[in-house]
Amino acid sequence: MRKKTESKRQAILDMAAELFRESGFERASMSELCSRVGGSKATIYNYFASKEELLFEVVVQATEAEFQATHEALDPSQQDITKALQNFGERFVTLIYSPAVQAVRRLVVSEAGRSDLGRRCYEIGPARSMAEVAEFLQQAMRQGQLKQADPNIACLHLKGLLEAEWLDHFMFHTFEAPKPQQIAATVQRAVAVFMAAYGAQPAR
Predict the structure, then answer these.
(1) Are the C-beta atoms of residues 30 and 41 closer than 8 Å to each other?
(2) Which helix (H) or strand (E) holds 42?
(3) Nearest CA among 50, 20, 24 for reference residue 36
(4) Under a CB-based contact definition with an 8 Å cutoff, are residues 24 and 80 in contact?
(5) What is the spatial distance between Cα 25 and Cα 45, in angstroms, rounded to a whole number?
(6) Residue 28 and residue 18: Cα distance in Å, rounded?
(7) pTM score, two decimals?
(8) In Å, what is the CA distance from 123 to each residue of 50, 76, 145?
(9) Residue among 117, 84, 90, 52 nearest 185 (CA)
(10) CA-based R_g, the chain, Å
(11) pLDDT tens, residue by residue, 75-112
(12) Vertex 84, ends 93 and 178: CA angle to 5°?
C-alpha cells in the first residue's frame, strides 16, 4: 500500500471542494479530480473510500472551526440573556449564510436522498448544534432568565426565527452572503420575538 501523507490528503480535499462548488456533486467526476490533483483514481481511493466520503470530509473541514467558535458564544455566565442570544445569533447566521457553507448546504440537500450523506451531515451539524443550544437554554430556564419550557422546542423556535428572513432567499438562490449590518438587524428582531415568547416575566 502506498504511504499516505497529510499534505496529499489535504490537497485532495482542497481540489474536491473546488470541483464540487464548480460542478455540483453529481457532475463532479473522480477522473477530473485526478487530473487536478495528479495521480490515479487508486491514489484518491487510498485516502477516501467514495465520492460521498469525500464530500462529507469537505463539509466537516469547511464548517468545524466556525461551528465551534459560534457555539462558544453561548456563555452560561452571561447575565444578559438577550445579549448572549444576540452574540450567538450573529455568529450563527454569519456561519450558515457564508458563501462556503451555503454551497455545502446545497450540495448536501441535493444528495441527501441518494446516500447516507444527509444523515451523517445532520448528525455533525444541526443535531449537534441543537444539543448545545438546548442545553444553554435549559440552563437559562433554571436560572430564571427564561420561562420554563421544553428546551428542544425553544431551540427550534430560536433557530427558525434566526433564519426566518433569509431562508427563502437561500432556497431560491436570490441573494449572496448578507452584510454584517443586515445580520445584526435581523438577529436583533429574531431575538426580540424569541424573548417575547420565552423571556421570564418580572416578579410582581
Answers:
(1) yes
(2) helix 41-47
(3) 20
(4) no
(5) 17
(6) 10
(7) 0.82
(8) 19, 24, 29
(9) 90
(10) 20
(11) 888 889 999 999 999 999 999 998 878 877 887 787 77
(12) 20
